[in-house]
Amino acid sequence: MPLSVEKRGVHVEVPDDRLPGLTPTFTLRIWCQPYTMADEPGYQREPGWPALLAKSRTWNNGFGFYGTPDGKIRFYLNEWGMFYVEAQMTMKKWVCLVVTYEFRSDGGVLRIYKDGKLADSKTNLPPMKRNDVPLCIGSTVWGDQGWYAWHGAIGPLSIWDRTFSPEEAAKASASAAPIKEGLVLHLELDETEGQQAKDRSGL
């Protein structure tokens, strides 16, 4: 069973020290199934802005995924309303999202793939602003029991300390088994008991 967010406060936190070396380059892959982006009692504190995951104290540093009222999913870097890539979502349908980021001499490059196909990209981005906040899956870390809670299901999450090529992004979207090279975190999110999500990256 995937992680099912059925009320505010249901989320998973990954300590910052489990995610070293993500400043210049990383790849993140996550499966998700949004039930709705609309505001509902017990979920978002503002209509239509659910957080799939976030590593930020505010919307102005780090990175994260958030939904929009018009049914899109955005991955932002540093500034939620300025530096982001996005993809259109279908409610109650599983999708695999892969995001890659690399910082080069001519600026940062951010890409989002939906089910293995490039959906959006941005160039000339600034370096990522690091923070020591846990990575929160299913909501944000601030507010009363997690504001902006996701409403839906969340499947496996994997993070690598390198940037995938388009071919690797397509391969990663076709199988739940993670590519081993550069893997720093892999959560199946399928635990049936207890309050711990097991990291299966092998590190």
Instruction: Describe the global form.
Output: globular
Query: Mind summarizing the main beta sheet?
Result: 7 strands, antiparallel
Structural class: mainly beta
Secondary-structure element sequence? EEEEEEEEEEEEHE
Q: How many extended strands? A: 13
Question: Fraction of residues in helices?
Answer: under 10%
Rg, Å, rounded: 15 Å
Number of separate helices: 1
DSSP strand (E) fraction?
35-45%
Uncertain ranges: none
Report the end-to-end length measured between terminal Cα atoms.
Answer: 24 Å
Give the rounded overall mean pLDDT: 85
Layout: helices, strands, pairs:
Layout: E1 3-5, E2 12-14, E3 25-34, E4 51-55, E5 63-67, E6 72-77, E7 84-88, E8 95-104, E9 107-114, E10 117-125, E11 135-137, E12 152-160, H1 166-174, E13 183-187
Antiparallel strand pairs: 1-12, 2-11, 3-8, 3-12, 4-5, 4-11, 5-6, 6-7, 8-9, 9-10, 12-13
Description:
This protein is mainly beta and 203 residues long. The protein is 4% helix and 40% strand. It has one helix and 13 strands; from the N terminus they run ββββββββββββαβ. The strands form two sheets. Strands 1, 3, 8, 9, 10, 12 and 13 form a seven-stranded antiparallel sheet that branches. A six-stranded antiparallel sheet has the order 2-11-4-5-6-7, with no helix packed on it. It starts with a strand and ends in a 16-residue tail after the last strand. The mean pLDDT is 85.
